[in-house]
Amino acid sequence: MKLLKEKIINEGKVVDSEVLKVDNFLNHQLDINFLNEIGKEFKEIFKDIKVDRILTIESSGIAIAYAAAKYFDVPVVFAKKTESRSLDEEIYESQIFSFTKGRAYKARVSKKYIKNGENILILDDFLANGRAVLGLKSIVEQASANLSGVGIVIEKGFQEGGRLLRDMGINLKSLAIIDSMEKGKIKFR
Amino acid sequence: MKLLKEKIINEGKVVDSEVLKVDNFLNHQLDINFLNEIGKEFKEIFKDIKVDRILTIESSGIAIAYAAAKYFDVPVVFAKKTESRSLDEEIYESQIFSFTKGRAYKARVSKKYIKNGENILILDDFLANGRAVLGLKSIVEQASANLSGVGIVIEKGFQEGGRLLRDMGINLKSLAIIDSMEKGKIKFR
Questions:
Q1: Minimal Cβ distance to A110: which of B23, B63, B65
Q2: What is the DSSP secondary structure assignment for residue A4, as one 8-state letter?
Q3: Which of A87, A140, B65, B111 has its CA 20 to 30 A from that of A58?
Q4: ipTM of the complex model
Q5: pLDDT tens per residue, chain B (189 residues)?
Q6: Reported pTM
Q7: Domains of chain A
Q8: Do B77 and A30 touch (CB under 8 A)?
């Protein structure tokens, strides 16, 4: 997606060869008009699949899922990372290891919000090692729902997540794939 | 707001006299069309004030702020509750005590995303004791910005936040104020 690549080049900040900061438009400040284009693009890419619900994980996935949901005209459900009184007792749960944070956390979704046989589209901001997507996939499977697709805004192509998920036969689409960020220079696939 | 009150009555769940669950449309599953109406309503209520940026806090505030930002045509910035590599070193920070969780947490905003003299509208899903809003207000003040208004979806009128903030002269508007939830029955103000 051309607009996204330009945005990454112009506003992203390469911290080191593994960390890209896009807090200017994607995960701290939100550029609403840009996110709307992201949502539209996901609908275009996934126009041929059935989607009953969009699943993401708090917090950075929420705005992206919201933007896309308007075009799919389906509800969003976001997995929670923290214990919450607003969560039901009846939940699907999976353990996710974060390489960035060096520790595991749990993702939880109320059983009310993913139903047997539904077609689920997972959306998230970044794909690196793929652990968050695998955790959400496990929740979809626990619900006996169908994983229709996985949409990612920025895939770090130099980490294993993309290959791992594609090798499993998952319908994964990334709007931008970065192959390297050596010496502060971003190379797209 | 009539639509919101109906939604609370029909889909909300009173857990006890202090806890209302609205995870069906506001803070776990997101009803996109409904949230769009919430966004439109905030614009209507705050149509006479200047807003350069909307400030909220992860996670439940994000979708609400996004929905409203479209009508104000301004960016959103959401305060982070966790340490993050995507945050700058240069941040505004405030400590917030959560009565729900019985512990304090920090809210952080990069100095890049709130500027001196800007007009800031704070939006959030719930107002109870008002500590989250006071924490965000402190961040606005640290930035020498101007707090134009505070918009809340659901105010728990039986807790002290609303009175506290109004007594301080804050331009606080809540789309629904609940005066009590005794015996499972919701009474609106």
A1: B23
A2: H
A3: B111
A4: 0.95
A5: 999 999 999 999 999 999 999 999 999 999 999 999 999 999 999 999 999 999 999 999 999 999 999 999 999 999 999 876 656 679 999 999 988 788 899 999 999 999 999 999 999 999 999 999 999 999 999 999 999 999 999 999 999 999 999 999 999 999 999 999 999 999 999
A6: 0.96
A7: 2-188 (3.40.50.2020)
A8: yes
